[in-house]
Amino acid sequence: MKLNKEIKDVFASVKVKLFITLSLTILLVIMFLIMVNNFALENFYLYNKEKTLKSVYYTINSYYRNPSQNNNIETELEKISIDNNFDILIKDNNGINVYTTNKNFSSVIGTINDIIDKFNISSSQEIEKNDRFSIRKQRDIKSGISYVMLSGVLDNGYLLYIRIPINSIKDSVRISNNFLLLMAGFTILISAIIVTIVSKKFSEPILELNNIAKKMSNLDFSHKYEVTDAKDEINNLGISINVMSDKLERTIKQLRDTNIELEKDIEEKSKLDEMRTSFISDVSHELKTPIALIQGYSEGLLENVNSDEESRKFYAEVILDETNKMDKLVKQLLELMKLEYGNREFNNSTFNIVELEKEILRKSKVMIEENNIEVDFKEEKEITVFADDFYIEQVITNYLTNAIKHVKEIDGEKKIKISNEINLEKNKVCIKIFNTGEKIEEENLNRIWNRFYKADESRSRSDGGTGIGLAFVKAIMNNYQNDYGVINKDNGVEFYFELQFIK
Question: Which helix (H) or strand (E) holds 178?
């Protein structure tokens, strides 16, 4: 099957088609010429010789009609004989030879009436006859030679005999046919060379155009046809394909850009819908408790459950506190949504991360002292990073607040440690915050980064936690595509995140 396909591909080639077409044309022309030689050349030859015989008859007759004007008749007759390969015999009224170019011809000629007998003619075909001469096609049995012979009477009464052998014409036809066949072979060979050169000149640009068209079908418009100075159809086709390629490339690029914009719009809409659904779900879930508290204490105030001023003040403070918590939760949740769905732009700049850490520790000093926590932070060297200091402050604050809430005394120490580790190969600085305390269960190591997940379900609401602090960290780090995480240590837990380090 593969061989048959290869054979079909070969015969489908323009070069092969052109060669076969040219070869068949040459062979048909040669065969036509051979047929013409075989069937028409001899008749055409006889027709011309017949005309020549008649012309010679009238010429010789004119010589003997006015012999005084032609003193050298024999010389003229000899010239006619040599030029036309004729045998000429002239006899007077008494049968005596007046002139002959061939003695053998003279010896076999008698009177006109016994010509056939004298020549041992086995077949005779009359070609033309009138009152002056007759022309016959005859064949000599002894010699096997065929002749065309004119027998006639001149105006002065002399008998004129002219003959010409016609066997030579058959040899000429045979030689001509052989020559034509030989020429056909040479012509086909030369044609093969010419076709190879010419077809290469024509097929190469066609193959190039075909290759360009195939690439265009695969949306590859990088290849262009090299336009020449020639003003032929192939060059014009190449120009047209180049124009079409440019237009298609521009059109497809516009379609792609439009499609990308449409996909972005769809993605944005999808994100917006998802964010809206998630926001409503989260807010509905998290606001149940504060709304219930507000409702309960509000009803207590309306119904004067406690009539003393101090109780009413307490009820009002609970309602205000829960309202503030709700406001804070909604704002944080909106900010988290923007971070998670990529709608928040960062105001990145270079700053000293060590100074930011010191400032956060200063703000958290009261909480640290109230919980009798030892802080290990000895960084003095300046470390420059590139990020948005506002959001990085939130990340560190969330880590530190989380550490303060969960720190416990282990082996006689209750400690929080803040450290910075520089990786020059990655151009990153890793900020680590460690606190002594209980390890996080393995199944919760990934869950703690989810919104509203609380590992300690018994924790009171008075600590002010909303359960989205670590989710904030995750969203901010994902936007920067930086690494972050948590590791259980022997005597506590270590949270970390990376930032771009500026040397």
Answer: helix 167-217
- Helix/strand/coil for 430: strand
**When comparing pLDDT for 62 and 39, which is higher?**
62
Alpha helices in 364-419 (DSSP H): 365-370, 389-406
Residue with tokens 């998630």: 278
Taking only the tens place, the pLDDT of each residue in 115-139 is 444 444 445 678 888 888 888 887 7
Distance between CA atoms of residues 77 and 86, nearest Å: 10
pLDDT score, position 283 = 60
Q: Classify strands 415-423 and 374-376 as parallel, antiparallel or unpaired.
A: parallel
Output the pLDDT for position 180: 73
Residue pLDDT, tens place only, 319-330: 777 777 677 667
Q: What number of other Cβ atoms are within 10 A of residue 62's Cβ?
A: 13
Give the range among 10-19, 77-86, 359-368 with minimum mean pLDDT. 10-19
Strand partners, 146: 139
Question: Rounded to 5, what percent of the chain is helix, strand, coil?
Answer: 60, 15, 25
148 close to 161: Cβ distance less than 8 angstroms: no
Q: How far apart are CA 330 and CA 199, in angstroms?
A: 79
Length of the chain: 503
Is residue 89 within 8 A of residue 99, CB to CB? The reply is: yes
DSSP letter (8 states) at residue 456: -
Q: How far is CA 209 from CA 14, 18, 197, 223, in A?
A: 14, 19, 19, 10
Residue 53: per-residue pLDDT: 86
Among the listed residues 295, 373, 278, 372, the one whose alpha carbon sits nearest the alpha carbon of residue 333: 278
